[in-house]
Amino acid sequence: MEVVIQPGSAEMASLVADEIERLLAAKPDAVLGLATGSSPLAVYEELIRRHRAGRISFARARGFLLDEYVGLPAEHPEGYRNVIEREFAAHVDFADGAVQAPPGAVSSAELPDACAAYERAIAEAGGVDLQLLGIGSDGHIAFNEPGSSLASRTRIKTLTEQTRQDNARFFGGDIDSVPRHCVTQGLGTIMDARHLVLLATGSGKAEAIHQLVEGAVSAMWPATIMQHHPHATVLLDEAAGSRLQ
Ligand code: F6R
């Protein structure tokens, strides 16, 4: 695992955008794994900037989201399908239908088939070339909360109290408005991506980053599975890296 410490999110975003620009130049139909939350926002801004400058096209690329809340109305602004549209996809030239999200709005009877179909869609697209990731303060990646199977695939999960508290800021500070469940790619799904790129800023992530880089691989700190990935890059600011030895 490669750990890179940068002064701030602008520098981190520029490095990730360089990597994506190189990938798309070599493989215009590359498959991008897209994260939501605050961590990748500066990357999306930089990609939009480079797209507007004529440097990057997503016309043949595909995107797959990591996760989606369960139980939000389709038009809810914090539904991740809507977030990625607003923050990124609508500002570049993805083809219609090229960005997909896990099935957050199907009945529980239909869910297992819908999750299997999402896994199949990723595989049929050729697998994820570059997966963007944030990390939860409890060590989750996507919404694989502590205790998640290290081999898990796309499925429904219950969000921890900690994650709901952390994400209440997107719901006007009201934890009761944060959904209790999500559909998330599993750790096994994420590990199939060819390159993992995780971004973390701020001291609130320092313990999770310490565990990710220096802890034992354990389902209690789900991100630690990345230690077994052959090509994982972790980009940090000083605060997120402050607990590293
Ligand atoms: C979002 C996701 C989550 C976030 C994590 C960190 O799609 O999968 O794992 O990456 O909760 O969120 P931020 O970046 O908001 O601190």
Automatic annotation (TrEMBL):
A molecular function (GO) term: identical protein binding
Superkingdom per UniProt: Bacteria
Residue span, Glucosamine/galactosamine-6-phosphate isomerase domain: 10-229
Protein name (record): Glucosamine-6-phosphate deaminase
Protein encoded by which gene: nagB
GO cellular component terms listed in the entry, alphabetical order: cytoplasm
Keywords: Allosteric enzyme, Carbohydrate metabolism, Hydrolase
Entry's family note: Belongs to the glucosamine/galactosamine-6-phosphate isomerase family. NagB subfamily.
Source organism: Bogoriella caseilytica
Catalytic activity: alpha-D-glucosamine 6-phosphate + H2O = beta-D-fructose 6-phosphate + NH4(+)
List of catalytic residues: 67 (proton acceptor), 138 (for ring-opening step), 140 (proton acceptor), 145 (for ring-opening step)
